[in-house]
Amino acid sequence: MLLILFQVFHIDFGHFLNHKKKKFGINRERVPFVLTEDFVYVIAKGRDQPQKSDEFKE
């Protein structure tokens, strides 16, 4: 999906719908959601210490 500013926006609905990727019958993803530092950076709009990130991590 492209936003008005031509930014790419992607939601992997497979995670929300519990369609897990498998290889040789083994789930590749063993946790429901992975929050990486890159995601935090994008969500926080480049701020180093987002205000409520610690609450979310707990």
UniProtKB/TrEMBL annotation:
Task: Specify the PI3K/PI4K catalytic domain's residue ranges.
Answer: 1-58
GO molecular function ontology, one term from the record? 1-phosphatidylinositol-4-phosphate 3-kinase activity
Record key words, sorted: Kinase, Transferase
Kindly list the GO CC terms recorded for this protein.
Answer: cytoplasm; phosphatidylinositol 3-kinase complex; plasma membrane
Which GO BP annotation is one of this protein's? phosphatidylinositol-mediated signaling
Question: Highest taxon of the source?
Answer: Eukaryota
Name of the molecule in the record: PI3K/PI4K catalytic domain-containing protein
Question: From what organism does this protein derive?
Answer: Dreissena polymorpha
